[in-house]
Amino acid sequence: MAGNTFGQLFKLTSFGESHGRAIGGVLDGCPAGIQLNLEQIQVELDRRKPGQSAIVTQRKEPDTVEFYSGIFEGKTTGTPIGFAIHNTNQKSKDYSHIKDSYRPSHADYVYDKKYGFRDYRGGGRSSARETASRVVAGAIAKQFLNGIQINAFVSQVGEMKLEKGYKELDFSKIETNPVRCPDTDMAEKMEAYIKSIKKEGDTIGGVITCVLQNVPIGLGEPVFDKLHAALGAAMLSINAVKGFEYGSGFDGVKMKGSQHNDAFDTDGSTKTNLSGGVQGGISNGMDIYFNVAFKPVATVLQAYETINKEGEKVTTQGKGRHDPCVVPRAVPIVEAMAALVLADFTLLARTNKI
Amino acid sequence: MAGNTFGQLFKLTSFGESHGRAIGGVLDGCPAGIQLNLEQIQVELDRRKPGQSAIVTQRKEPDTVEFYSGIFEGKTTGTPIGFAIHNTNQKSKDYSHIKDSYRPSHADYVYDKKYGFRDYRGGGRSSARETASRVVAGAIAKQFLNGIQINAFVSQVGEMKLEKGYKELDFSKIETNPVRCPDTDMAEKMEAYIKSIKKEGDTIGGVITCVLQNVPIGLGEPVFDKLHAALGAAMLSINAVKGFEYGSGFDGVKMKGSQHNDAFDTDGSTKTNLSGGVQGGISNGMDIYFNVAFKPVATVLQAYETINKEGEKVTTQGKGRHDPCVVPRAVPIVEAMAALVLADFTLLARTNKI
Amino acid sequence: MAGNTFGQLFKLTSFGESHGRAIGGVLDGCPAGIQLNLEQIQVELDRRKPGQSAIVTQRKEPDTVEFYSGIFEGKTTGTPIGFAIHNTNQKSKDYSHIKDSYRPSHADYVYDKKYGFRDYRGGGRSSARETASRVVAGAIAKQFLNGIQINAFVSQVGEMKLEKGYKELDFSKIETNPVRCPDTDMAEKMEAYIKSIKKEGDTIGGVITCVLQNVPIGLGEPVFDKLHAALGAAMLSINAVKGFEYGSGFDGVKMKGSQHNDAFDTDGSTKTNLSGGVQGGISNGMDIYFNVAFKPVATVLQAYETINKEGEKVTTQGKGRHDPCVVPRAVPIVEAMAALVLADFTLLARTNKI
Amino acid sequence: MAGNTFGQLFKLTSFGESHGRAIGGVLDGCPAGIQLNLEQIQVELDRRKPGQSAIVTQRKEPDTVEFYSGIFEGKTTGTPIGFAIHNTNQKSKDYSHIKDSYRPSHADYVYDKKYGFRDYRGGGRSSARETASRVVAGAIAKQFLNGIQINAFVSQVGEMKLEKGYKELDFSKIETNPVRCPDTDMAEKMEAYIKSIKKEGDTIGGVITCVLQNVPIGLGEPVFDKLHAALGAAMLSINAVKGFEYGSGFDGVKMKGSQHNDAFDTDGSTKTNLSGGVQGGISNGMDIYFNVAFKPVATVLQAYETINKEGEKVTTQGKGRHDPCVVPRAVPIVEAMAALVLADFTLLARTNKI
């Protein structure tokens, strides 16, 4: 309970506030015998880290992960993997202005109400900094899931929407631009747009599309732990996410059954894939694809009016080094959460039959 | 694990196949001392049951719930509430044609692959019949949550979309028409449209909107068990659901932060509510509202080509008594799942502070 | 939570009060494909049922189990197995005298304090009648665990203690006498002693020894879910149990390490087995054996003084049809709980390695 | 699952091997607002640490805990408390002799079989070093449970058994001698005996008694999560524990019901307390007391014969700095686990009633 553990068998328990000593976690249930590429874990963290390009926050956080346990002679041992990322660039003074007032559309107010007080340095636990722990665990999950391809990318920024289906895209282009959009032309436009938003001191929302390929048939535990329900919960647990759809999604509601049904080929695959790779909550071997909607970051570098603890009106100036658009840095987080879900259901599926 | 338990403290474990002897469940963790209105539980079941109007399946299932335990002298005792709904109208012969072939966009194929064989009578466990158990438990949750208003309604059928916001609607109209759309004009059009779809032997998708009012501040357990993540998982676990969005949802991605932020009033409420009543995964006291997308029902009363277990092509005729559009009957299911989530987080929130 | 679910992957959720309509449960996570012998499940229930001999309670309860789901064409389907045992012989009047007063060393008082009121008919949920559901689930677990031998027997009644080690006993004799002690001479003495205790209207405690053989190496999940810790919790959850020891147990504390260590043979087995088949919480392939201590049944057919709800002294006469000694009927319950633990850890162990 | 999380609401997830970089854990679910005395946490750790007296292992491990999160301005924040204890005295060479052979009655063999290989430095994860994390979390639990007294002490070493009941003892004497036995005379004899055992290079078992006082009525969640079942599981999860009994325990089996029943006083307390403070799995307000049996430490400083990975016989000399008797250092561990159980059930009990 208590909300800081994800997964049932492949389980991440995470800890840490944005401006505490360290963030980190414990990954329990990771099977023994995975030959880990530790450099690759750091590569994933670097995809998420601040300061990586001109369109993300310019905070300097090296985000170096230290492993404390569960790995021996380069392999997972089956015992819990404890890890920490020390916070090195805490600059608490940047946040002193939020100690006594509540930033709109942030969690300051609800934390105070729920817990009686809060760690007011940065977002504390509500900061997206916490997601770095997810990326570490997800990177290990990816190595466990070898054979499965997990690719996320930015498919929309504000009104700019990539209309091509994922099959028309070259995933190898995702990391070639700071937006992480595999369509290079669109990526350039998005980048320019984000820069202009940043110049205004404003922020903008976006959508990440994620595609899971070569997923074996049979993952997902009906009736409540359907594969897509777990993916949805995983994505909705990421900061700033407002929506999740898979397969035909919200557009599918407009269709008739006779149009929407995916006819079988003789090998058990389907000719179309409006279902999005999941039937009845169980993977069917087809590509799983889904969209994740991110709202615009709440911190805008503009003056705004709000209230303080006493309920009095105060005027504040947004400051700090924030992302004008969260989706480029959220791509590895979406992938990490997808990997955690798949790893968990891979283990669960081992128990389905005698 | 194993997927048939929902909730952490207010926990429903459900069982049952569409054509077995009974479906039912155990509700464990329900606090002692709730004066139960058993008639009201049956009312909720009747909102979900087949045969209630001309636009839903004409199967005859009385869906009478029997309680076995956990209730004494009209009140919950704090011990598990066991209940069953006996299947009285099993008509197995209706389904004999699906024993050896796989219906497109149904779960037949994946159940066979996952478990090695399947109960081929009706959908077995993958049938939406299972959701009756959810409605029973949700009806108890509603009685526990007295003071909170939970209202779901149909806001879209196919392309027909209710453009009014929920504040312009009169929830008392929801039950006055078979579609369960509170806008009477729109309801009539939707009803006519569903009838025409039915006449074609086809089906159509739809959207249910749900509004939770008077929710206390502080429900939700960051970082993984955010309130909206749990709501999302709950909704995505309902048969035929393809998407979930709350607050500004997918439309919110097009907005700038300066437009999207909800400014505070001095009482802690917010002037706008694009956030949808949840900040950082915790309820903030404002209305929680969300949309749930349902695909068109997969069973169409038309001839179709598919494969059998041996991977050979076969041609089959869809038959049986199915819903042309699932959303009218899914309204009480959406409400039930929302109630289960709120009940669970209400109990969890009791542990947040000393 | 809420205490009515046992197991992590092979999970029993139980419900029911002694004098409600039915008791029963849901077994979730049972792998698909087990060819079930339903008669054998009833045989196990009959080993536990009242009225089976002169030394147990003479209540008449047929304890017939009905299965509602999860079984198709004789095999488990991988979906939850719902079942119920209807209460047919409720004789509530027998218990009317306990409505307003608290029986000593029963749970009446604490249920009232914990939940605000209680189902005062019989023990309600605190009655050992609940264990019938465990026997049903355990009987299924046994069929899943084919190849593992689970044998429990009575090794002590009051001061009468079987001094022979389990290896000197013939387990096939256990069911040949009403005490369920495999040493026929001792069984006769115990039987006579229990009859004399019964005649006094009194009760007596006892010990059950359980031996698990052919358990594969590797069951148990350190550090908290050690195999023996789970067995201990399982046994201590049975009504009237006051103690658990395995291997050398409480006697082992008197030994030196040089005496207690179990030397290896070249095949990995050990020459002695003071460890009791578990090292570091993990089965080592040797026999697992443990003792479970049961207190004397609290209901004595004698006059006693106690208090009522108002805290006033009252004098009452114990009545009803109770067991003079609980251990003969508890033998199948101990076996059932052991089977549930082994089934659960068998599934968990499938996830240890890549 | 996976065994490294303890508790349902007040949850410790622990990590770490004896000779890895660090051990530690995450305590999730600890309520916000506890004013923490960090020095007191270190005091508890120091009670457990090596080198504290002549009768325990002479290893030098400072065991200094560092907190990474969940504490702000001296109080718990309601967010997860991450912590680590760095291993400073790893001396891996001490253990090189066990890389390829299996120590009798240690977990070396079963770890290799279960996980395919093992961290052979010291006991790795199976080392009792892991329990330091439990002591940290338990010390926090104790501060949450203020008002409840938790006292454990050594009541038996080898054949030397303290015959006095706990009410005749002065708990303030527990920490006045290295054995942690509150009877000073007995403590001296035990100390001398342990020293003689140590001189032989041998080890000896013992018993710890624990008494919980001022526990509120109502803790414990029947039917499976009975308070004493959780205490039993907690104790049995500690390294070297072979048995658990509470209240009358194994001696209670010899009694008649008429002797064993605890008669009520008019205030709801009982005149005797053979029940040990728990009825039907729920605390009844009386003292809870239980015994925990520890086997002799397996590492003896003597030559012994064993097998290597290839199943060949090898002769080895036990070495290293080990405890001749584990119970003195295990006293704070028993208290910590009891505190974790009580904290967990305290939170659970908040959900029992409307």
From TrEMBL, chains A, B, C, D:
SUPFAM superfamilies: Chorismate synthase, AroC (SSF103263). GO terms for cellular component: cytosol. InterPro entries: Chorismate_synth, Chorismate_synth_AroC_sf, Chorismate_synthase_CS. One of its GO terms (molecular function) is chorismate synthase activity. Its EC number is 4.2.3.5. Pathway: Metabolic intermediate biosynthesis; chorismate biosynthesis; chorismate from D-erythrose 4-phosphate and phosphoenolpyruvate: step 7/7. Its cofactor is FMNH2. FMN binds at residues 125-127, 239-240, 280, 295-299, 321. Reduced FMN (FMNH(2)). It catalyses: 5-O-(1-carboxyvinyl)-3-phosphoshikimate = chorismate + phosphate. This is Chorismate synthase. It comes from Flagellimonas flava.
